[in-house]
Amino acid sequence: MAKFNSQAEAEAAGVYISKVKSFVKREGRLTKAQGRALEEFWPTKGIEYQNEPLDLAAVFGRDAPVVVEIGFGMGKSLVTMAHEAPELNFIGIEVHRPGVGACLADAGELGVENLRVMEHDAVEVLKNMIPDASLHRLQLFFPDPWHKKRHHKRRIVQAEFAELVRTKLAVGGTFHMATDWEPYAEHMAEVMNAAEGYINTAAEGDYVPRPDYRPTTKFEVRGQKLGHGVWDLIYERTA
Ligand SMILES: C[S@@+](CC[C@H](N)C(=O)[O-])C[C@H]1O[C@@H](n2cnc3c(N)ncnc32)[C@H](O)[C@@H]1O
């Protein structure tokens, strides 16, 4: 990629460089199975980062509502969701390569056809590759909570991000977040309640019960046994 001397220069050239990243890239080693899955399935299920909008129907070979998930980790719940909702098209975005490999291994094993994956910063993908008003749902499950106050600026949910997500959702589309860290849930609600062009779909208060389409993760079930809470928030794009 071309090098830019400043954020302004990059933006002028149409390239978005987020100032603060929501992740620190870990150099995890690939297991043999993950490496094999990347080799076998990336050519058909992987999407390379590019600097222009995707033709979503061409990517999937059909027109269907598109769900994007940011930060799918090892991809277990994303693969289950895609398997259980064959009428939807799913794109998972994750920066952690072993996670991408693990997700492809599971998707390949189950023969899931309606899932594509990307290995890149989801903020850049949203900004540059996802067409405006094209998404049925955007999912952000258990994003890094960045517990320390001095790291709060790394939390992906911020006003600017809420606006970016809004422009990518179709009107009537939803932004679904879940977290097990209560202060982050409160932060999400604060940012989203202040964001224009959304309504909170909760019947009461800020949180909704976990919808059936979101499977629980092993990590989540273990946390619940220990008495930890989980907060789901779903906002709908209205304008
Ligand atoms: C705490 S983990 C949760 C993983 C998974 N959603 C789960 O519930 O098990 C957060 C994940 O988000 C990924 N991540 C953070 N920021 C990201 C970004 N900007 N683009 C893509 N992935 C990101 C991290 O690599 C990490 O795997």
Automatic annotation (TrEMBL):
Q: What class of enzyme is it?
A: transferase
What InterPro entries does the record tag this protein with? SAM-dependent_MTases_sf, tRNA_(Gua-N-7)_MeTrfase_Trmb, tRNA_methyltr_TrmB_bact
UniProt keyword annotations, A-Z: Methyltransferase, S-adenosyl-L-methionine, Transferase, tRNA processing
Gene3D superfamilies noted in UniProt:
Vaccinia Virus protein VP39 (3.40.50.150)
Spans through the membrane: none
Q: Where does S-adenosyl-L-methionine bind?
A: 69, 94, 121, 144
Q: In which pathway does it act?
A: tRNA modification; N(7)-methylguanine-tRNA biosynthesis
Q: Which Pfam families match?
A: Methyltransf_4 (PF02390)
Q: Which GO terms describe its molecular function?
A: tRNA (guanine(46)-N7)-methyltransferase activity
Q: Which residues bind substrate?
A: 148, 180, 217-220
- What's the EC number here? 2.1.1.33
The source's domain of life comes to Bacteria
As its record notes, the protein acts as a catalyst of:
guanosine(46) in tRNA + S-adenosyl-L-methionine = N(7)-methylguanosine(46) in tRNA + S-adenosyl-L-homocysteine
In the record, the note on similarity to other proteins reads: Belongs to the class I-like SAM-binding methyltransferase superfamily. TrmB family.
Please give the function described in this protein's UniProt entry.
Answer: Catalyzes the formation of N(7)-methylguanine at position 46 (m7G46) in tRNA.
State the protein's name: tRNA (guanine-N(7)-)-methyltransferase
* Organism of this sequence: Alteromonas oceani
Annotated gene: trmB
